[in-house]
Design goal:
The protein is 26% helix and 31% strand. By secondary structure, it is α+β, with helices and mostly antiparallel strands.
């Protein structure tokens, strides 16, 4: 099994509904997202997935969330989801899955801060 990881960063704000504490108020984060893709076979160039391609796909999703209030994004409004780090990880997975041939997403990590990270590991 081979795996590769890329990361990106974006800035946005959010607030958590039905939450008692400071995060109920609007506040911002400089988010960091790490995606790891894995598979058993390399392509004819000797790569699992081109790093540049994976990074481009990840950056495209992050650009949709950059410098917005996450609560106002249609994905979180329509599902009435709190834009938590956990739900952001699932959001990234839903936009990236199936884009890398037979390879699969092994994990997505969303860092709210350097010390707080949520990880989504698809089944």
């Amino acid at each position: 099994m081979y795996s590769i990881r890329v990361e990106t960063r974006f800035s946005s704000s959010h607030h958590l509904t039905d939450y008692e504490g400071n995060c109920a108020r609007l506040h911002g984060h400089n988010w960091r997202v790490v995606v790891e893709v894995g598979g058993k076979e390399l392509n004819e160039t000797g790569m699992l997935v081109d790093f540049t391609r994976l990074k481009t796909e990840l950056d495209t999703v992050a650009a949709e969330l950059d410098h917005i209030v996450l609560n106002d994004h249609p994905h979180f409004q329509s599902a009435e989801l709190n834009p938590t780090a956990e739900n952001l990880a699932v959001f990234f997975h839903s936009h990236l899955r199936g884009k890398f041939g037979n390879n699969r997403i092994l994990r997505i990590e969303v860092y709210e801060t350097d010390d707080y990270v949520a990880t989504f590991i698809p089944d």
